[in-house]
Amino acid sequence: QVQLVESGGGLVQPGGSLRVSCAASGSTFSFKIMGWYRQAPGKQRELVARITHGGTTLYADSVKGRFTISRDNAKNTVYLQMNSLKPEDSAVYYCNTLPISWGWGQGTQVTVSS
Question: Over 1-69, what HEC string results?
């Protein structure tokens, strides 16, 4: 059973930056397309970025040019660098495969507020 552990969230002012990480147990990580998802209160979980095993990336329009997804297959870890953060980026951030095939981790809370 693969376990996902997200970390790195916190409180940041608008315009600030934050990097969140997701570590996955198990040996199949490097063959998976990985995605970062987020869920704000009262809203559905949405996919914000994805990365293939070879490093090809794709972003939601709402974060394009501000967020960067990356991965380290040797460490079974995927990252999301978030710059120029806005209050509407506030959410719990999760990682998972694409399509979703693993159980969800606990997520990491990102709050953008002055």
Answer: CCCEEEECCEEECCCCCEEEEEEECCCCHHHCCEEEEEECCCCCCEEEEEECCCCCEEECCCCCCCEEE
27, pLDDT greater than 70: no
Task: State the average pLDDT for the chain.
Answer: 95
Residue 3 region, left (φ>0) first, then alpha (ψ -120 to 50), else beta?
beta
Say which amino acid occupies 86. K
For the chain, percent of residues with pLDDT exceeding 90: 89
Tell me the CA distances in angstroms from 8 to 28, 52, 92, one per residue in order. Answer: 23, 22, 11
